[in-house]
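Renewal narrative, Specific Aim 1. Our central claim is that a sequence can be written position by position from structural information alone. The example that follows is taken directly from our test logs and has not been curated for this report. It begins with the structure tokens describing the chain, in the order in which they were read.
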């Protein structure tokens, strides 16, 4: 077969034309022959592969094996899709549950905060009302003392009377208030 191929190649080279044939050197002819051999080998290999594939496709055992592989692939894809959908559904349910819990906690916090604010406002109102009703101040006259360039102002002690919710009686406490030493020159 190789001899036949070589003969064909030489015939091709000779048929290329008189002038080209004379101008081709021995080296170029060998390159052309090698190129033609490689091309021939590739075509023969491709034909063999195509015949093997056709034989496999026509073989009932091979067809059965391919059909089983395709079925297994389809089943695996279907299982993966179902698993993914299940995981996605579970994740969405958990996310919804987390959101419900967070909203419930936020509502609880808001209610507690509102209760605290109401309680504080009520306490402040009670304190203001208690301050007006419970406390009484009695102050004596202020005493002014002139010493050189200094003016000293002394207030006499004041008594605070207030109503004690603990003992439910009026209590007296003595509170001492004293303001002193205002430095001003004496103008007289």
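The sequence written for that structure reads:
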């Amino acid at each position: 077969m190789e001899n036949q191929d070589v003969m064909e190649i030489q015939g091709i080279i000779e048929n290329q034309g008189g002038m080209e044939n004379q101008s081709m050197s021995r080296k170029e002819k060998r390159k052309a022959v090698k190129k033609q051999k490689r091309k021939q080998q590739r075509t023969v290999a491709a034909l063999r592969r195509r015949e093997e594939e056709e034989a496999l496709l026509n073989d009932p055992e091979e067809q059965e094996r391919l059909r089983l592989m395709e079925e297994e692939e389809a089943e695996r894809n279907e299982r993966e899709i179902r698993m993914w959908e299940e995981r996605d559904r579970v994740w969405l349910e958990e996310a919804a549950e987390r959101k419900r819990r967070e909203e419930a906690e936020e509502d609880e916090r808001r209610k507690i905060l509102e209760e605290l604010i109401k309680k504080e406002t009520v306490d402040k109102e009670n304190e203001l009302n208690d301050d007006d009703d419970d406390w009484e101040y009695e102050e004596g006259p202020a005493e002014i003392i002139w010493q050189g360039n200094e003016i000293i102002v002394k207030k006499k002690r004041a008594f605070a009377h207030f109503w004690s919710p603990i003992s439910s009686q009026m209590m007296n406490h003595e509170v001492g208030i004293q303001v002193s030493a205002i430095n001003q020159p004496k103008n007289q």
